[in-house]
Specification:
- Strand 4 and strand 5 form a beta hairpin.
- The longest helix has 52 residues.
- The N terminus is likely disordered.
- This protein is α+β, with helices and mostly antiparallel strands.
- The protein starts with a helix and ends in a 9-residue tail after the last strand.
- The chain has a domain of 66 residues: Roll (Nucleotide Exchange Factor Grpe, Chain A, domain 2).
Length: 216
């Protein structure tokens, strides 16, 4: 009986200690909450007091300083954009002025070949050699322009007359044709890739019953 009472007393003491510890923790949490709330309240009051402390003149001065800073930033941005625009215009102008530089660099050696051929002809009376030299230069130039730049010379003799590709300089009636046919290239035409950049100037054979082709 005495043991049970002693055990009961110990249990009561432990429960009492637990309750007291819980109460202490709750008190501490409440104290921390109160301190945090008081701190936030103090910060808000300080900010409000600082705002209230600014006089109208000081507020105006602060706003004017902010406005001046913003204006300065905008002016710098505008100056940067103007410099960028000028630089792009200059680069564009340079690109236009020197767009044909690569083509001209390819033509310069051909000019050198012509100069050598002329100098050789002046020293020699061999006309056939001169003609062969000029033919070689012409072939070199046309091959280079076609392979590198897409410039192609086309022949039209025997082809049907096409006003998109041909310009009739001469027209002749013929009973041998039923449609307008190019008889002869007077000046050959050129294509830049797939576009006609110079129509061929040709002599055309027309059926005798057909109206004449108007030269362009």
């Amino acid at each position: 009986m005495l043991k049970k009472e002693a055990h009961s007393e110990k249990t009561d003491q432990k429960n009492t200690q637990i309750d007291e510890a819980s109460a202490d923790v709750s008190a501490e949490n409440q104290a921390e909450t109160d301190v945090s709330g008081q701190s936030a309240e103090k910060d808000a009051k300080s900010a409000g007091e600082a705002a209230k402390a600014l006089k109208p003149e000081e507020k105006i001065a602060e706003l004017e300083a902010q406005l001046a800073e913003t204006r300065d930033q905008l002016l710098r941005k505008a100056a940067d954009f103007e410099n960028f625009r000028k630089r792009m215009n200059q680069e564009k102008q340079n690109a236009i002025e020197y767009a044909n530089q690569s083509l001209l660099l390819d033509i310069i050696p051909v000019i050198d070949d012509f100069e050598r051929a002329i100098q050789s002809a002046e020293k020699s009376a061999d006309l056939n050699a001169f003609i062969e030299g000029v033919k070689m230069i012409e072939k070199r130039l046309t091959n280079q322009l076609e392979s590198k730049w897409g410039l192609k010379r086309f022949s039209s003799a025997g082809e049907l007359f096409d006003p998109n590709m041909h310009e009739a300089l001469m027209v002749e009636k013929s009973s041998d044709v039923t449609e307008a046919v190019v008889q002869e290239d007077l000046i050959r035409g050129y294509l830049l890739k797939d576009r006609v950049i110079r129509a061929a100037k040709v002599k055309v054979l027309m059926p005798e019953a057909a109206p004449a082709v108007a030269s362009e």
